[in-house]
Write a structure and sequence with these properties.
Distance between the termini: 25 Å
Strand order of the largest sheet: 1-2-3-4
Number of strands: 4
Order of helices and strands: EEEEHHH
């Protein structure tokens, strides 16, 4: 098992850490990434491989997958809160612009988008 750690600081001074592991599986290997923000675990993401990877750098796919998962969860949280506050069940085209504005002003979403840019 190989373990490697990456760390980065976003614009809003949040420290993100990615603890990456390579584990053997029955048919190949897997990259497992645990994502931390200020030393609190946010999530774990795993990518299985049969033969080899075609990444620019080791763990790229797994780290980006973890960031996408965190971004999607935060967007869903903001959307559900918006629907609850406005007492609506669906997002119409008219309200979609308001929701996009909330996404653009959300610091966590901005940080995740920044992390995605850093991990290209």
């Amino acid at each position: 098992m190989t373990i490697k750690e990456y760390a980065t600081v976003s614009n809003n001074n949040s420290v993100y850490r990615f603890v990456c592991e390579t584990v053997n599986t029955r048919h190949g290997f897997a990259h497992k990434v645990t994502m931390f923000r200020h030393n609190y675990e946010i999530l774990t993401h795993r990518v299985n491989y049969l033969n080899r990877t075609w990444e620019c750098w080791t763990y790229q796919t797994a780290i980006r997958g973890a960031i996408y998962t965190a971004l999607e969860a935060e967007q869903n949280r903001v959307k559900e809160h918006y629907k609850e506050v406005n007492n609506i069940s669906r997002i119409t085209a008219k309200r979609k612009a308001e929701l996009e504005e909330l996404y653009n002003n959300n610091q966590a979403i901005q940080a995740y988008n920044e992390l995605l840019e850093l991990t290209k």
